[in-house]
Amino acid sequence: MYKIKKQIKLYVEAQYASSPPRGWNSYDSFSWTISEKEFLDSAQFISDRLLSSGYEYVVVDYLWYRRKVEGADADSSGFDVIDEWGRMVPDPDRWPSSVNGNGFTEVANKVHSMGLKFGIHVMSGISTQAVNANTLILDTKTGEAFEEGRKKWTAQDIGIKERPCSWMPHGFMSVNTTARAGAAFLRSLYTQYAEWGVDLVKHDCVFGGDLDIDEISVVSEVLKQLDHPILYSLSPGTRATPAMAKDVSGLVNMYRITGDDWDSWENLVPHFDVSRDFAAANMIGATGLKGKSWPDLDMLPLGWLTDPESNEGPHRTTNLTPDEQKSQVTLWSMAKSPLMFGGDVRNLDNATYDLITNEIVLEINSFSSNNMEACFPYVTNGARSWIATGRDGEVYLAFFNVNTDQREITAMTSDMAKVLPGKNLSSCLCHELWSGRDCGVLKQSLSKAVASHGCELFIMFCS
Which UniProt keywords apply (predicted)? Predict the structure, then answer.
């Protein structure tokens, strides 16, 4: 059997997303209920088992400031912990090291000591709870309450009640960024995150259907001025378009282009069209905040999970079949989406581990180029095909079968050459990744029967 002899270089994530960021996010396995111990235990597993494969960021997803008590859920009101300036701080019952104004400092320090980077999910604007309490606004330049026009500005002066977050209307609302007090409030938030040692911020309810280019712009400018580098991510991306992304990609490092992705084939299928459109618009690896930006297809809901908007931790295995899981990981790699694993890493099974650490998949995700859906005229009826080139001259070709039955998928070498001008594909040595089969020397075409919901990923070395 032909063996791939090229050396796979280890992925090393640079600051400001020179390649698609990679890591773990707590949402798919813990929803909002994760505790400090659970998070740090998970981080240690990632450091021990996944860091060597480039999984560098560990991210606490939403509502880390919400008290886990009866009545509290994803859109409840009045259960959050805020400071005197209306800023969210960790729930001390779940995050005991946050007491006495420490916030996430100790957690970030421990994460950094593991060789990892620390991220948090934050919401748009200001919390309804802060507006109801009419808290003062911190001026980070003076360390005192923000004053202008001989008045001390408050949360009620900047909160826009007519613009609540669409999916958390009781929790957060936009702020008036045209007012200097509104910008000062946002600056106080992100300055505090930097002081805590946060390395990534996942900013929600400002993109897609909730687009707030003004808030994104203010936050991006604040991040530029901070001494501590923070990767800037936008979420979610319901109704996101390439035209919309062109307006924000230079301000951020990654941005969701789909709604929440959960573990069902029906949920996965729309990602084929979305990823195709963003690739065709040349958005993959476009200029971003102090580096590059990446369209984000959302987390990988593999392994041991919880349920959407659940109030409990991981308790079930993914609903995706093995073929569907391979299809998802292959599409994410060919589209160069950030890879954020969502399963419970404390219970990481061998099959899932092998899937998300596959060296070829990670090589494609980090270092391939010319990534696009190859819309060959004869690849129809639920078949999809992606193509890309490797940094050492290889060609990657992926077949996907979206149908409920097996389908034969073919690609002509003449058509592949049309989408990869300058490539000589007349005589290529071919290998299929997932089966480990050698395909021999490719002549005029490559044809394969692909299982329902399955994929084939070919690596071709051409003279």
Answer: Disulfide bond, Glycosidase, Hydrolase, Signal
- Beta strand 159-164 with 151-152: parallel, antiparallel or unpaired? unpaired
Residue type, 214: D
- For residue 443, name the pLDDT band (cuts at 50, 70, 90): confident
Side-by-side strand order, sheet with 172-175: 126-127, 172-175, 159-164
- Residues found in the chain: 463
Beta-bridge partners for 25: 59
One DSSP character per residue, 179-204 reads SHHHHHHHHHHHHHHHHHT--EEEEE
CB contact set of 34 (below 8 Å; sequence gap of 6+)? 26, 60, 61, 64, 94, 313
Domains of the chain: 22-367 (3.20.20.70), 373-462 (2.60.40.1180)
88 DSSP 8-state letter = B
Query: What residues contact residue 178 under an 8 Å CB cut-off, 6+ apart?
Result: 214
Place of tokens 């936009």: 174
In sign, the C-alpha dihedral spanning 23, 25, 30, 35 is positive
In whole angstroms, give the CA distance from residue 211 to residue 221. 17
Instruction: Specify the amino acid at residue 32.
Output: W
Q: Per-residue DSSP letters for 126-148?
A: EEHHHHHHT-B-EETTTTEE-EE
* Torsional sign, CA 282, 286, 287, 293: positive
Query: What is the C-alpha separation between 12 and 308, in angstroms, rounded?
Result: 32
**What region does 65 belong to: left with phi over 0, alpha with psi -120 to 50, or beta?**
alpha
pLDDT band at 15; cut points 50, 70, 90: low
